[in-house]
Specification:
The protein is an alpha/beta fold. The chain has a single domain, classed as STAS domain (Transcription Regulator spoIIAA, 2-Layer Sandwich). It has 3 helices and 7 strands; from the N terminus they run βββαββαβαβ. The strands form 2 sheets. The chain has a 5-stranded mixed beta sheet. The radius of gyration is 13 Å and the shape is globular. It starts with 7 loop residues before the first strand and ends with a strand. The N terminus is likely disordered.
Length: about 110
């Protein structure tokens, strides 16, 4: 994926593809969602059906970031796939729950 993966690491583990942000204390917000959207769309377009987005380093997500996650979830649902959220902090989880979209995602504490 070349330049698109500069802030992200993409790793295959068993039948899942894991997308991790490389920076500590990163935010997914309006100024940087384009890169994540392109990465997720490229993975889905290439046939990946089980994607985990690692939120370990994510300290904040805004509505545009939620939109990226919802778009990926909708696209994967069309192919019986799923997008899971990994290692999400209490504060970021609160954004998902307060906006009532947590019900659409699977949450994982670890990859195993």
């Amino acid at each position: 994926m070349g330049d698109l993966a500069s802030k992200y690491t993409i790793e295959k583990k068993d039948d899942h593809t894991i997308v991790r942000h490389n920076e500590e204390k990163a935010e997914i917000e309006i100024n940087n969602t384009v890169e994540l959207r392109k990465i997720l769309n490229n993975l889905i377009d290439s046939g990946e059906t089980k994607i985990l987005v690692d939120f370990k380093n994510i300290t904040y997500i805004d509505s545009s970031g939620l939109g990226v996650m919802l778009d990926a979830m909708k696209r994967l649902n069309e192919s019986n796939g799923e997008v899971g959220l990994l290692s999400i902090s209490k504060d970021v989880l609160e954004v998902f729950t307060s906006t009532k979209i947590a019900q659409f995602f699977k949450f994982y504490k670890s990859v195993s």
